[in-house]
Each structure stands twice: as structure tokens, then as C-alpha cells.
Amino acid sequence: MTALINSMTSGLLDSPVMNTTLNISVILVFLGLLLIREFIRSTGDSRADGWIKVLNAAIFPLLVVFLMVIVLRFRLIFEIHVLGVL
Amino acid sequence: MNQVSTFLRLYTRQIPWLVPALYAAGIITGEVLLVAVGPAAALTVHGTLLTLLILHAASHEGVKRLVYSALMLHPLLRVISLGVPTTGLPPLVQHAMLGAPLWLALVLIMRVNQTTPAGIGLTPARQSLGWQIGLALLGWPLGLVAALIIHPAPAIASLSPVNLGLGVLIITVFSSAVEEVLFRGVLQTALTHAFGVYGILVTSLMFASAYVGTLSLPFVLLMGAVGLVFGWAVYRTGSLWGAIAAHSLLTCGALLIWPFILR
């Protein structure tokens, strides 16, 4: 079935406050991993490439999530404040 | 502190499946917390596990890296599904938005481990064609059972050919295929290295736990059984195609067709 969206079908994420908290939390996870990657890169260790490859496997998908959050939040702000929806 | 560290090192060397088993248990606990406590608790657990697994995978090579990096995918799935603000968007758009970053994660994890598509069962299944077709056809009645248990709202507005075609395409690519490649392809392949044949059982438990959010025990049990059958078939035949087709028929039936017929 769809393990990806099942948490939403049961109404767990219907609250806008909860949605915002989760969006910010995921962005913090993304920024945290980005920080770890840059720290490892700065050490110049010979094993850094392997570490960065593994970190990138989580960072790039979360970057896509981050961009989606930005676009959708701006769309919401545009709809509320410019178009007067809601 | 040194004694504890030596003890742990010795213990994990004697029982190599212990740490992966603890991670799997942590992931299942995170899924249960999603409904027992709330999304914030689940995100905390999955975010922590994801970070630990990244560090664990990065500090190892070979099979251990394969196992830990594959385990990363489940917390990543949940972090993505909780993080993308899809509320209010059409269901098919939600599927595409959540499936796309997961595909990216799968490709990157496969690159980290130098895994080829053939290595996870994405190979022509000429020798087991009968098995693959049989497994695929199983998806249709399973879709009916799933629809009868959770009564999902249809993912499309009407059963027009355009809606249906688009729905089948999006659900197959961004939901069914991505989940099969994740669970039966990458995760099960990695976990059978850690647990042997019991890797199928552990993968099925993790797969079932991903459906705890439906708040339906019969549905979670059904998906656990589906995971076992699909997992065993993939393990025996070495091909993912039958499981992908069955999963697609199951999901498309339950979300696109059965809701219109049963109402």
C-alpha cells in the first residue's frame, strides 16, 4: 500500500501547528547533517570521502524536502495574504 | 569506560546481528510512538536513529556499511513523510512529492554500497516467470481485502481513463515500486546478510510497522503477511518484478478502483 502517506490518512497531521513544528524539525535535521558534513570535510581526513558519501545519501533527499517546505509555505502565505484565501 | 567499550566491542563481534536488531527494534518503536504519543515523538526517534545510522554506516566498510545504510532508509522514509507539508494537496500529488525524495535516497544508498539494480533483484525474471505472474495476480484480491479493512477515500475524483491511467502511473512509480525497492530490494538484501533467512521476518516486521499510522490492527497484520509472502518470493526467485506488480495492483485496487465499486 502506501506507507508514505498512511500517517496522514488517520488524521495525525491535520493540525497546522503540528505541521509547522514538524516542518521546522525536519529542516533542523537537514541543517544538522549539513553541519556534520561540513565539519568532516574541514578535517581533511583521508576517510572523509566515505563519510561524506553516506551523509549525502540523507542530505540530498532532505534538501528536496527542505525546498518543498519553502515552496509550499510561500504558496500558503501568498494565498492567505495576497489572494485572501481562508 | 574503556572496559565498557571493550565489552561492547567483544559482544558485537560475538553476536554480529545484535546492533542491527537493536536498530530494527528502535525503528519499530518509532513507528508505534507515532500513534501512541504523536508525530513529534516519532520524528525525534527517527531523526536520532537516522543520525546514529549515518555515523555507524560511515564508520564501517563492506557488509556492515551495507546493513547500516540500508537501515537508514526506514527512518528517512518516516522523516520525509512527516516533514513534507502535503495537507490539502491532491492525493496523487502527495504520492509524487513523498516518493521522489525517497527514490533519490535509494539511488544514493545504492551508489554508496556500489549496488547494481541486478543486485537488488531488478533483473529479467525469465526463469521464474510463472512465479512472478502468480505473485503479481495475488495483488488484486489483496487490494480488495485492504479496501474492505480500511475503507480508504479514492485517490482520484472519478474513474475516467485519464484519471485512472495517471493514478496507476503515479502510484506504481512513487508508491509501490519505491516501497518494494526499499523493503524487498535494498533492506531485505542487506538484512539477510545480518540475520540470514530471518532477515525476511525482520524486514516484514519493519514493513508492517510502517502501517501502524492507519490505526488498524487487521491492516497492519495484513501488511505483515504481505511482506512475508513478497519477501519469501523475492528471496526464492531473486527478482523484484512480481512483488512490484503485486504491490501496484494492491495499491491501485485499494485506492483507485475498489473505493468506487464498494461505495
Q: Can you tell me about this structure?
A:
The complex is a heterodimer of chains A (86) and B (263). In chain A, 77% of the residues lie in helices and 0% in strands. Residues 6-11 of chain A have low confidence and may be disordered. Chain A contains 3 helices and no strands. In chain A, helix 2 packs antiparallel against helix 3 (48-81). Chain A has helices at residues 6-9, 16-43, 48-81. Chain A is an all-alpha fold and 86 residues long. Chain A is elongated, with a radius of gyration of 17 Å. With 263 residues, chain B is an all-alpha fold. Chain B is built from 10 helices and no strands. Chain B has helices at 2-14, 18-36, 39-58, 62-83, 91-112, 129-150, 161-195, 198-209, 217-237, 241-262. Chain B is globular, with a radius of gyration of 19 Å. The model of chain B has no long low-confidence stretch (mean pLDDT 92). The chains are: A mainly alpha (86), B mainly alpha (263). The interface between A and B is large, with 44 and 65 residues.
Write out key terms for the chains shown.
heterodimer; A: mainly alpha; 3 helices; elongated; B: 263 residues; 10 helices; 0% strand; globular
